Amino acid sequence: MKLSSRVSGLRPYIPGEQPADRVYVKLNANESPYPPSPAVENELRGFRTETLRLYPDPDSRDLRKAIAGMPGMDVTPDMVFPGNGSDEVLSFIFCTFFDPSLPVIFPQHSYSFYPVYAGFYHLPVRTVPLRPDFSLDTGTMAQPGNAGVIFPNPNAPTGILLETSGLRAFLQQQTENNPGRAVVVDEAYIDFGGESALPLLREFPELIIVRTFSKSFSFAGLRLGYAVSSPENIRALETVKNSFNHFPVDRIAQRLGIAACSDAAYYRRVCAEIAATRDQFSAGLQKAGWQVLPSKANFVFARCPGRSGQEVYEAAKKEGFLLRVFGTPGTEDFVRITIGTPQDMQTLLECLEKYCAAK
Ligand code: PMP
C-alpha cells in the first residue's frame, strides 16, 4: 500500500514502557500513585449509561465552567479550551499558533512530544541548550526571530521550576523581541509546588497556559487536558478543533472532569503528600551520594556517580521498579523517577542505596 508522503518523515513519540511480564511499581510515566477524588467515584456510579447514545456537548460548556470556577483560576469559561488529554491540546496549539516561516523555540531537554508535533506540522525548530545547572536559558530563548516558544514549567524531565519573576522577565523580553508570537507554558506539573502563570494572562495576550488532569488529578487513564488563554486565542483553537474532531471530550470525561473540579481540596492534599514524599526521597538519594536536580514536579531527575542511567534503570527493573531513561546527549547519566507512595519510595531508596554502594 502506498502511504502519503506526509507519513514517511514522521518520528512518533515513544511513551514510557508498559511491560506485561510481571507486576512492576510504575515510576516511569509520572502517573499518580493515588486514586481520583471520591466525588469522581460517586459520579461514575451514578452515570446514566443510556445517555451514551447521544453525542457529547462539542464545546464542553459545563466542564469549562467547572474548570474556570476552580479556586485560584480567576478566568472566564471562554478562556478555557478542554481537549482529549493535554497532548491533543498541544497538537492543536502547534497547528494554530506556530507559523512555518520561522523556527519554534523549545529547550534542548524538555517534553519529547514537542519535536514530534513540530515534525507533524512541518515546523522548523530551534532547540536552546539548558544552562550548566539545567535551568532554562530564557535570554537565548527570547532572541528575535522566532515563531513562538514552548516549554514545560516546571521543566520535564529536569523538574526545575522557573519562578514567576523569571517568567515575567522572559515574557517581557520575548514579546518585545517577537511581538504577537505565542508563548506556551505547559503546566503539566505545576500543582506539585510551582506557582502558576495564570495571573500573567492579563499582562501578556501572547500567553497560553496548558494544563492536564493526568498528573495532579490522577486522571491519566481518562484523557483530559485544557488550555487557558484570551477568548480570542481560544476561539482560534476552536476553529482548528472543529476542523479535526468536533467531539474530543466524551460524555464520561466531561462528567467526571466536572466532579473532579468540585473537589480541589482533595487534590491539594494529594499533591502536598506527593511533594513531601519527593523532598524526603530526594534528600535520601543525596545522602547516598546522588546528584538530584531540585524538583518542583512529581518526579526527580537524578544520577548515581559512576553509573549510567541505563545501568540504574536495569538494576531498578530487576527489583520490580520501572524508571525512565532518555539517553539523549547530556542526559545519559540520569534516570527520571516518578514519585510513588512513601512505602514504594522507601523500598526503592533502599535498593538504590545498596546498588550504588556496591560499586
Ligand atoms: N506535557 C508534559 C510536560 C508531559 O510530561 C505530559 C505527559 N506525558 C503531557 C504534557 C501530556 O499529558 P496528557 O496528554 O496526559 O494530558
Automatic annotation (TrEMBL):
It catalyses: L-histidinol phosphate + 2-oxoglutarate = 3-(imidazol-4-yl)-2-oxopropyl phosphate + L-glutamate. GO terms for molecular function: histidinol-phosphate transaminase activity; pyridoxal phosphate binding. The modification N6-(pyridoxal phosphate)lysine is found at residue 215. The keyword Cell inner membrane does not apply. Its cofactor is pyridoxal 5'-phosphate. Residues 24-350 form the Aminotransferase class I/classII large domain. Pathway: Amino-acid biosynthesis; L-histidine biosynthesis; L-histidine from 5-phospho-alpha-D-ribose 1-diphosphate: step 7/9. Keywords: Amino-acid biosynthesis, Aminotransferase, Histidine biosynthesis, Pyridoxal phosphate, Transferase. The keyword Kinase does not apply. One of its GO terms (biological process) is L-histidine biosynthetic process. InterPro entries: Aminotrans_II_pyridoxalP_BS, Aminotransferase_I/II_large, HisP_aminotrans, HistidinolP_aminotransfase, PyrdxlP-dep_Trfase, PyrdxlP-dep_Trfase_major, PyrdxlP-dep_Trfase_small. It holds the Pfam family Aminotran_1_2. Its EC number is 2.6.1.9. Homodimer. NCBIfam families: hisC. Belongs to the class-II pyridoxal-phosphate-dependent aminotransferase family. Histidinol-phosphate aminotransferase subfamily. This is Histidinol-phosphate aminotransferase. The lineage of its organism: Bacteria, Pseudomonadati, Spirochaetota, Spirochaetia, Spirochaetales. The gene is hisC.
